[in-house]
Amino acid sequence: MTPPIIYPDLPVSARREEIQAAIRDHQVVVIAGETGSGKTTQIPKMCLELGLGEAGLIGHTQPRRLAARAVASRIAEELKTTLGERVGFQVRFHDQVSEQTQIKVMTDGILLAETQHDRLLKKYQVIIIDEAHERSLNIDFLLGYLKNLLPKRPDLKVIITSATIDLERFSRHFNNAPVIEVSGRTYPVEVLYRPLHELEVEDDKAQDLQQGILQAVEELNALDRSRRDGGPGDILIFLPGEREIRETADTLRKAELRDCEVIPLYARLSLAEQSRVFNEQRRAGRRIVLSTNVAETSLTVPGIRYVIDPGLARISRYSYRSKVQRLPVEAISQASANQRAGRCGRVASGVCIRLYSEEDFVSRPEFTDAEIRRTNLAAVILSMLQLKLGDIAAFPFVDSPDSRFISDGFKLLEELGAVTRGRKLTTVGRDLARLPVDPRIGRMLVEANRLSALTEVLVIASALSVQDPRERPMEKRQAADEKHKAYADEDSDFVTLLNLWHLYEEQRQTLSQSQLRKWCQKHFISWVRMREWRDLHRQLHLSVRDLKMTENKTPADYAAIHQSLLAGLLSHIGIKQEKGEYLGARNRRFYIFPGSGLFKKNPKWIMAAEMLETSKLFAHQVAKIEPEWIEAPAAHLVKKTWMEPHWEKKRAQVVATEQVTLYGLIIVPKRKVHYGRIDPQLSHQIFIRSALVEGEYQTHAAFFKHNRDLLASVETLEAKTRRRDLLVDEEALADFYLRRFAELGGEDIVNGQGFEHWRKTLEKEQPKALFMQEDDILQRSAEHVTQQQYPDHLVHEGVKLALRYHFDPGAEDDGVTLELPLPLLNALPLKRLEWLVPGMLADKCTAILRGLPKAQRKHYVPVPNYVEAFCQAVTFAEGDLYEALALHLQRMTGLRVDADVFRGVVLDDHHRMNLRLLDGQKQVMATGRDWTALNRRFSKQAEQLLQQASPNQSWGRQGLTAWDFEQLPVSVKLRQAGGLEVDAFPVLQDRGTQVDLQVVSRRCEAQRLNPRGVARLLMLMLPEPVRFARKQLKQLAQSVLLSGKRFEVKRLEDEILLSATLRAAELFQDVSGAPLPRDRAAVDALLPRVRAELHDQVVALDKWVFDLHSRLHRIQKQLNGKVNLQAVPVLNDIKQQLDHLFVSDYLSVAPAEWLNSYPRYLQAIEVRLEKYPRELRQQCLASEQLQQLWQSWQKKLTEAQQRDQVTPELLSFRWLLEEYRVSLFAQQLGTRQTVSEKRLKQLLAGL
């Protein structure tokens, strides 16, 4: 038998009949009562008494899980039934409802979840929405849902219970439903206003919050002592947050208030610390509880007789502009202030001190904004879409949300891929709606399933959905931090949670429950929250299984885990800036929260589970990420910009540099992408211009080669004439292709692959459809550009050398370039290069004349006329250009001009032949216009290459000791690698104990080497006469000593013998054109004469050298004595003269007629040494003049050798300088011929 229902003595009980009548007669009733009125526990009983609960459940919602369990227990106790039978409850992780249950107490979230599968809530007969005044998101959603449901369920009763706050609004929402107000206060509350600026203390200065609170506490202490009505009453002080609680606690403790215990109370405290507030047995005098607004409605603190209300609270507000959940400190509403005051009238009459003025109170808003007007609506929108409840803007909320918040909620769902841009639910969205977590966290799970990281992400996702289990007691913060550090990850706070889970699971498997609790306490971990974490994990595990998701058995790596998390946190990413600041989505700037394990690490890129604005915008639960992870999950959100579209030959496609941004953050700075799909029209034009017009394309197409060859031929004509008026511009060429492609159906071609397919199909029927003709590319006729004027080859002694023309002023190869094989470097004369080609001669001569000084240039005006006359009269490439020009101009004007004046004119590069030196493989070794410099650098290599003749040629023999070959020709034709034939000059190279038969590239080099080589070969063929002659060198040793270390014995001995052989064979004259023996018969004819004369020549030379070196010795002694500094130039000049005269091989290289003059030259030096102190100034000037003449001759000789144009006159000039010295310093000795400075300079100019 069911026991009778008994009602305790509570205010609501006294109004039972009125309340039951209203419930019976109306579908909706609003019942208002203050805390303690009994409405929560008694109204369900009244419904039972009315017979409700028989045809369906009496559903009773609570905002919090703890309240749901406590209320169910209380009602079951009063109905004398076991919890879970007649009265049951269901919360997030626990369901204690049976078939006998009539009253089901649950959280509002549970009832909302049931709407997913029971749209009409058919199992309920009554639904009681308790604490409706809190206006949470769930409550407002339920009130709107019920409003729509009631017409469809006329049998359903709805009861709204609330504190006496904004009752009319609830009534209006349900079509003016009746309102019953029940008083809940048992004792009166006196409200005192103590604005901070009116409180007085000793220093009479404006007080801050802590000082104001201290003043109020002291006032309440005094008031309490004056009442003497029982024990000391406890004080409840409301504060905005943890920081203010800590600061106030420090202030009160320092005040050393007598018999007072300061107790903090806020949500993040450990359960043990929270329990201190409710433990009446452990009290020690008056308790001062410092609480956030958690004690306003959620928790009832026992024993409170006094309240101090600063009138402030941290109100969670979502900013649709910055997309950030903010926690600003705001002034509370009148309704909240009255709720706070009501907390001190429970056990006796109370006093509430408000630290603001009554005027301030009256001016405040009447009610606190409903949560729906200050939070992100994504979860609500997702549920509504899943339930197909229609347009959220038209949904009957008690307070309609701001349209901007609705729009923002859709944007977040779009970010998560839950809805389309048309606001339709996606497959992902349907999955998210079925997961009992925030949409962001649900998105992580969906992605984790795709990336095989679901096992790990389930743990993290459930952790993010419950309160952090790590505890940090105020007095043990350092110890807690040390324990927490043991499993902290340096790169990810999410991995830290995963590590904590694994650590806890290890302990749970091995420890008993009591041991596990102790372990948690020791490691500053909340056992209760860990259990909640595990419960939610189990629930999510079942949910993902229902969605056919698969948990991975192989552990996921860091990248897979964090890429999964990233899918839900795309707007919570950031890149490091300066001083710890991060730049986030939409130009948002934030900092890593100090409690994060990454606070001091500051990685370059991070993501955060939450962005919360307090004193600054802080990122909570942070992890290091790689920017390349972002694009894939954000593909539908990123913005792409493309820069510098251009053709890339290697890819055969148009590419561009792509930059990818997400919410203003550059996640891909530069990436090369195919541009054809992005802008086909522009890509087609770029393909035409770059690939076809500019030729940046590789194809075997016949049209392409034909067109390129045709264009190249016209470009060559332009290069030859140095004009840009023959070939049409690139725009005209592009127009040709654009027009043809359009006509032939190829206007969509953007890359090589597509073009080749189209072209091959086209060419089967029209093989020449894309061929250009001359008329397509020529602007005017080019008949004047002939091969005669601009040949493609330069022919030198039968060898054709390629010429290349280029017109690009300032470029290295501007003008005409001669491709010169290395073996021909020494053979090609410089004077031929100066003529260039016939078509360029007039321009060069014009530049020469216009480059003359004005005084000379004026004689050749107008220049073009003189140039034209010269070009018509001269034979092209005959002789020296500058000399030819000087001669013809002299004939035309009668004025003599030195050719060197023309040579001195500085010309633009294109007026000088450019040389491209090629090796045997035709690879470029060097380029340049300075033939002399190239010759100096590569002449030895050219000589070596000459020796590498074809195998069937006999040059290159070594180790000859007799003339065992037929002839020594003046020159030969050698075939080089590649078939090139070059002129070479055979020589007998003296190697001391043997002779080598080689070839050289210069005739003058052969003339210099051959006399000595022949002489050596004669000596080797006459060993006995030479051995006998060597024994006749009686004065050799003294001659060596007298030379002053200029010679070694062996070297001087060999030079005397070689010189004697040259004299006996009369070979000294070869440099002057005397015949050289060039065959075996001529050599055989010489042998008797040399054999007969060698002895006498050696004896004579032995004495002659001794006498010469004796005179040299005397001169050197004078030069090595004490010297007047002013005489240094003279003495240095003499020393250099001796060095030039007495080179190591002077006896064999100095022509006989000049060698015989050596004694006279030394005698002249002796005269000079005797005279110079008296005429020092004149001799110094003479020395300078002689040095200049010597250097000028040396330069001329070097250039002539490189050009292979060494003349007897040039060689004789060197000895005329010695004669000039005699005429200057010892004129009495006489000279071989008349010499003077003027004569020498004239000779030098003509060389």
TrEMBL record:
Its EC number is 3.6.4.13. Residues 20-183 form the Helicase ATP-binding domain. PROSITE patterns: HELICASE_ATP_BIND_1, HELICASE_CTER. CDD domains: DEXHc_HrpA, SF2_C_RHA. Pfam families: DEAD (PF00270), DUF3418 (PF11898), HA2_C (PF21010), Helicase_C (PF00271), OB_NTP_bind (PF07717). InterPro entries: AAA+_ATPase, DEAD-box_helicase_OB_fold, DEAD/DEAH_box_helicase_dom, Helicase-assoc_dom, Helicase_ATP-bd, Helicase_C-like, HrpA_C, P-loop_NTPase. Residues 208-388 form the Helicase C-terminal domain. GO terms for molecular function: ATP binding; hydrolase activity; RNA binding; RNA helicase activity. Keywords: ATP-binding, Helicase, Hydrolase, Nucleotide-binding. NCBIfam families: DEAH_box_HrpA (TIGR01967), PRK11131.1 (NF008348). This is ATP-dependent RNA helicase HrpA.
